[in-house]
Recover the amino acids of this structure.
């Protein structure tokens, strides 16, 4: 079946099968967060992005074999099930180095901009973006047999960048990081946000000037 990325809390996950990676998108919790389970096809090693809420729902997809849980940023709606998922699976935790102190579950692997994070034989590149929080991270997968894929947390959505609470400095920082670190990728790049439906960089690129003008 064709992947669409439109998932609802209480509904089924959506699964995307790439040549080297299987991506499962799951909606959880009162804020309709998206969690993403990445599985290396060669090794079956798994990595979870944002154990946001509803641990039993996440564990139903994860099973008992999980290598790593990455938290994209320190806001509580993105780590609500982290402690329970880690206790059930023994997975190591990873987060941006700057945001890690704001996450109550200790971070085993602090991540910096440009780091490489592996899931099995698949490499993910870490990009730090400042503005929604001081040290939010985005994970980028450059599919060697396709287009790039971005797991953007709350930094980039369909229709705009993440909330910066009308702080001009925070907006300027996040807008700059998004444009300089993400929009350098091709239009075909698929965006998997922390809430809501997916998009592509090509769909959003024409709107960058209006985002800049409106300031959010």
């Amino acid at each position: 079946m064709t992947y669409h990325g439109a998932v609802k809390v209480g509904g089924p996950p959506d699964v995307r099968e790439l040549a080297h990676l299987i991506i499962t998108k799951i909606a959880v919790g009162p804020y309709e967060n998206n969690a993403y389970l990445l599985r290396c096809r060669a090794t079956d090693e798994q990595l979870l992005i944002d154990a946001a809420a509803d641990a039993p729902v996440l564990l139903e997809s994860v099973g008992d074999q999980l290598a790593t849980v990455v938290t994209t940023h320190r806001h509580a709606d993105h780590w609500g099930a982290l402690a329970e998922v880690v206790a059930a699976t023994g997975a190591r935790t990873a987060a941006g180095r700057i945001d890690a102190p704001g996450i109550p579950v200790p971070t085993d692997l602090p991540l910096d901009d440009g780091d490489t994070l592996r899931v099995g034989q698949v490499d993910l590149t870490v990009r730090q973006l400042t503005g929604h929080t001081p040290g939010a991270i985005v994970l980028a997968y450059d599919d060697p047999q396709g287009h790039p894929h971005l797991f953007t947390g709350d930094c980039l959505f369909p229709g705009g960048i993440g909330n910066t609470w009308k702080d001009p400095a925070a907006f300027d920082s996040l807008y700059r990081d998004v444009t300089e670190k993400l929009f350098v990728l091709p239009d075909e790049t698929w965006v998997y946000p922390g809430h809501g439906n997916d998009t592509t960089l090509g769909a959003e690129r024409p709107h960058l000037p209006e985002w800049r003008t409106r300031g959010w």
User: Anything to note?
Assistant: The longest strand covers residues 21-28. Residues 6 and 197 are 5 Å apart (CA to CA). The chain has a mean pLDDT of 98.
